[in-house]
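HUMAN: Can I see a protein plus its fold?

ASSISTANT:
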Amino acid sequence: MNLNLLTAHELSESLRSAKITSAHILSDLKDRFDKVEPKVRAYARQPFFKKSSSRNSVDAQLNGIPVSIKDNICSDGDLTECASRILSGFVAPYDATVVKKLKEQGALIFGKTNMDEFAFGSSCENSSFYPTRNPWDLERVPGGSSGGSAAAVAADEAILALGSDTGGSIRQPAALCGVVGLKPTYGRVSRYGLIAFASSLDQIGPMTKDVRDNALLLKVIAGHDKNDATSVDIPVPDYVRSLEKGVRGMRVGIPKEYFVEGMDPEVRQALNDAKAKLESFGVQFGEVSLPHTEYAVAVYYIIATAEASSNLARFDGVQYGFRASHKSVEKEPALISMYKQTRAEGFGQEAKRRIILGTYVLSSGYYDAYYSRALKVRALIKEDFDKVLGEFDLILTPTSPSPAFKIGEKTDDPLSMYLSDIYTISVNLAGLPALSMPCGFTKSGLPIGMQILGKPFAEEDIFRLAFAYEQNTLWHKMKPKL
């Protein structure tokens, strides 16, 4: 059997019993990469095989398991370019905390995955390298911005992968590619070594073939980190052990604002079928309201672009990455000319759009009208969730209003592209954990994802419900025919 088809927990069992070695896994992954990567383009560049530095690998939770990492997560001595020309040639001088944790638990770092430039996008078309394609239909997008990680897992080019989620960038591609993706609670996973998009929204999270692997990977990367001031110092549960605690009696809310006109009818039907399945396990459902949902997209694209504008000011061609070969402009200092030309040539169109939007809403005369007001509405969105989750254990929604769209379909319509994250954005604004998992397929064979939202730091409850559903369905077992 091809080992690349297996999950991490299946491989770990065989590794412990000495039936296989990590070299066998890497060999099968490399063969799979050579076969399908020219079609999918899930990786930012040729994978490398970096060994773990674990000194206690016999007991390590990921001993010998390869993990693929999004191209915005630093790993010592490796190219980390955020799929942007302006960071071309940048070699990270240190490991992100999540990478350090992976290595300590025996993981093998298996290359960097493609992404939308600086995580700006919902389709993985904004990469400076090339667009990644959906393994289920190569004419369609894999979602974004963590589209490379999602596509690699779906195409069995990766065993485990890490992505980052600022407004749905783990969950939306997970839904479109038919894999499991978790955005942890803000502060659950260290952001140290993640190249920032929007610092109050970003979170690193696991992307996997099934729920058990997702729980396993979160257990490894979660925890307090003194290098990240937003990291929360609370114990990390054993997520894998809690999977089988059962779900009878759990109360789950269905927000009426998420089931509205415009949702693809096949997505609606898949969610209704999933709800019925969970009801048969003893889960209790009730309709709830999140009244400020309609403002989420507008609030997000004010706050996120403002923070992006601030964070991307550091990329000027002076300290690292790309520098334009410039000609001095008359009456303009050479340094200013270099800044302008470097940023003009180094950033892609979507990055420029977001920098300009963010600079505008932070500018004098507009800060109070836009940014300050957006922060107030963000607080109201969080209050909506606090109220509902005071009465219910979890919330169930679609992950995306439609299955994967065609490559190029929305590139000329930024607003339409932004609306593809309409069901995921609120979670980041509220700092909550949420998981996307497959819950069906369209008649044309495209995956459909459902999203499970939980209380802060209640990832255990999310995993319990997800695992109960997964164990009684076969969606996660289905493979694309590449």
Observations:
- The chain has a mean pLDDT of 95.
